[in-house]
Write a structure and sequence with these properties.
alpha+beta; 2 domains; 4 helices; binds coenzyme A; Acyl_CoA_acyltransferase; GNAT_dom; MshD_Acetyltransferase; GNAT family N-acetyltransferase
Length: 168
């Protein structure tokens, strides 16, 4: 199994073991746990998304603490002219486990475990999402543009910062 255990020191000095893995299994436990992480995702839609993962349209990675999923990230695989490219989406760390370096470690782990031909990662992030932008900058992502009115959040348009990182 594609897994890696990484000890992380919490601020109170307690060491926690985090496991990282490429998500292959989509048994009921995993689906329920993902549903807990993303309460706004419907169970059926998770099932559909995981079926797509099977066809390798995208790849998901998760982080676990004590066997419980605490973080998730997905990469949409580029095809044809864009076969060297992936788009990073749906990065999420459980609220109680933020600021422990989990997102940074999960992204670094996942970038090392993408298919060999992938050399460029792109992403779009809400311009006002400072935690995520700080994280991406720390991971070496560079800004390459601003997409105005890129998404609609709570009925309001939101601009997205476009970022990229060369990984080879
Ligand atoms: C953004 C998110 C994934 C960060 O996860 P995390 O595990 O807490 O991040 P890490 O602990 O690995 O932090 C790494 C760096 O990111 C930055 N960062 C993370 N959270 C931050 C915050 N609340 N404020 C400012 N900077 C922050 C810091 O530079 C941090 O390094 P530092 O701790 O040495 O200062 C998490 O807050 C989250 O799930 N947010 C909701 C979903 C989301 O916005 N996803 C991104 C969609 S594009």
């Amino acid at each position: 199994m594609n897994m890696f255990i990484n000890p992380v020191k919490e601020k109170n000095k307690k060491t926690i073991n985090i496991e990282f893995e490429k998500l292959k299994h989509h048994d009921l436990t995993t689906i329920e746990e993902l549903h807990n992480l993303f309460p706004f995702w419907k169970r059926n839609s998770i099932l559909k998304k995981l079926k797509k993962t099977e066809k390798e349209k995208d790849i998901r990675f998760i982080a676990k603490i004590d066997g419980k999923i605490v973080a998730h990230v997905k990469y949409i695989l580029g095809k044809s002219l864009h076969k060297h490219r992936v788009e990073m989406v749906s990065l999420m760390v459980e609220e109680n486990n933020r600021r422990k370096g989990i997102a940074k470690k999960l992204v670094n782990y996942s970038l090392k475990n993408l298919p060999e031909e992938k050399t460029l990662v792109i992403l779009a992030v809400d311009k006002k999402n400072k935690p995520a932008i700080n994280l991406y900058k720390k991971l070496g992502f560079k800004e390459h543009g601003l997409l105005k009115k890129a998404s609609i959040v709570d009925g309001k348009y939101v601009d997205n910062l476009l970022m990229n990182k060369k990984i080879k």
